[in-house]
Amino acid sequence: MVCAVASLGGLLFGYDQGNMSEILQMPPFLEYFNYPNATHQGLMTSMLTLGCFLGALCSAYLADRLSRKYAIMVGCAVFIIGSALQTGAVNEAMMIVSRIIGGIGVGILSNIVPLFQSELAPPEIRGRLICLQQIAITGGIMVAFWIGYGCSKIKTTASFRIPLGVQIIPALVLMAAIMFMPFSPRWLIAKGRDEEACAVLAKLRAGGDLDHPMVIREFNEIKEVVTSEKEVESGSYLELVKHPVRRRVIIGIVVQAFLQLTGINTIMYYAPKIFKQAGLKGTDAPLLAQGINGVLNFLCTIPITVYIDKWGRRSTLMFGALGMVVAYIAMGTIMAVYGKPFQDGSDTSIAYDNGAASRATMAFVYIFVACYALSWGPICWIYPSEIFPMRVRAKATSITTATNWIFNFLVAQVAPILMSDITWGLYIIFACFNLLAFMHVFFFCPETKGVMLEDMDELFGQSVWAFKVKSQNVSHRADNDSSEKQTFE
């Protein structure tokens, strides 16, 4: 329940992502903002991600100073202000500034939510619980698509103001509900609030029984590691560039960069345009196809949520990357062979005369989305949140999450231009990035499923080469502890 409530933070970003892809196709929006070209559309879309970058960077201070719980509340408050300003935007400048403000809120939540979830979840189901974040993201995208589709029938500015205003509701719900959720026990122990931490662990693990062996073991494990970390290092930003944390920071940064270089947000933001190129006529048909895209994205996130702690992080990422490579190569090849370029205003677009080629393009868009939703979508939020030591976890994940958002910003800026300038070549570029992502995981990302957060130092200390690391060789503290019951005092 705690992790599910926190995951509403993911719904806010997912909703906005689905929102803008629909709004950019609405005639009242285009008319009201003087028919922005591809560059201006990319600017209005990507300004939220620039705000997310700033929010992710400042989230570490909030998480360590105020707590993970109160940092989530701050993120909600900032998002609500930005959303209200977006809803009432009267010109392009106001829309851009309000999206930056809303993005700061999303950036805070995108880092703190998986961090909070990872610190409350037991290791055997940690991946599953953090996946709730991705369920919320894809659920938000799906809901936004259908709200946008319904509002596309409206002929006034309400067609885009209603979808923008609706996103305030889940932010208010999260802000209210998180007040009733517990603090992270690891954060409490780091702040010397041991009795509160034990009470939280007892409630989460044993129905409130402070004397339960599982509660006592986990408390002692966390306490031992937190105490030793404070004796060895200060937990400053400087430690992120020093051994042994530096290697994990680089791994986390590269994983989050590749999350955006998969091209997922190009597909999500501009899928209606791709579907229109593939031969779907009018305004409704591409938006309807995008609505189906959102449902597929949501449904394919469910199996990975159920089985991630059985499948593991590493193999799932590699299979997903290869699936996306195949989908992109197929899309690019079909466009190159059967597509005919033509001028669509100031942009170059693609048209098909071949019905089979048109349907195949749409099919491979859906295959790509399925591969992404079953792998990189959820796991790239799980992996960075679990690989760092407690003393620098918030700071390190703020850097990796900020990397996600800055690459999101860059891709959103460049993709619509490349989509016009090199058409099918963009998909070949994304295929190459996905192949590099496969290689990064194979060589550098060890398997973390079932490993306690306090045992990650031992896991990453085995070898630099991930294919040589065996997670089952980690000496889990819970297994090695004496079975003699200790009483917390």
- Fraction of helical residues: over 70%
State the end-to-end CA separation.
28 Å
Number of domains: 1
Radius of gyration: 23 Å
Tally the helices: what do you get? Answer: 22
CATH architecture: Up-down Bundle
Q: What class would the helix/strand composition place it in?
A: mainly alpha
Task: Report the CATH topology name.
Answer: Growth Hormone, Chain: A
With strands numbered from the N-terminus, the spatial order across the biggest sheet is 1-2
Strand content: under 5%
Order of helices and strands: HHHHHHHHHHHHHHHHEEHHHHHH
Find the CATH superfamily.
MFS general substrate transporter like domains
Low-confidence stretches: 477-489
CATH class: Mainly Alpha
In short:
It is a multi-pass membrane protein. Helix content is 74%, strand content 2%. The chain has 489 residues and is an all-alpha fold.
Name its key features.
single chain, 489 residues, mainly alpha, Growth Hormone, Chain: A, two-stranded antiparallel ribbon, 22 helices, 2 strands, 74% helix, disordered C terminus, Major facilitator superfamily (MFS) profile domain-containing protein, membrane, Sugar_transporter_CS
Describe this structure in words.
By secondary structure, the chain is mainly alpha-helical. It has one domain: Growth Hormone, Chain: A (Up-down Bundle). It is built from 22 helices and 2 strands. A two-stranded antiparallel sheet has the order 1-2. α5 packs antiparallel against α6. The two termini are 28 Å apart.
